[in-house]
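This part of the workshop introduces the protein records we will be handling. To make this concrete, we reproduce a full record directly below:
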Amino acid sequence: MNQQTHYILLALGSNIAAEQNIDHAKARLLTVFPQLQFSRSLITPAIGIVSPPFTNCLAEGYCSMQLEELLVALKNIEAEMGSVSEERKKGIVKIDIDLLQFDGTKRKADDWSRDYIQLLLKELSGK
């Protein structure tokens, strides 16, 4: 049986024990999506919330999951890592994994205009 593969682009961010949480998220993502490639991490100021700076990176690759299944898998990884909405409301983000693109469909339109997203995407595309 031939499963269809889908291009995915993810944005990872953390503002508490950030380097450790980003590394943990990368390891978890690789167990589910072994073909992912990661950008370098950048430290950026918080956008839209009062909080410490964030460490951010991008991941791109392919998966055989359908969109809804993929979104559930990403939320499950966040939950397994202890990222909860009560903390997010207080500006504490252990890990945030956003799907920026699925095949040809861009998501999270506001994120695409962020300088660090564009910079990391250029670097990732150049690998």
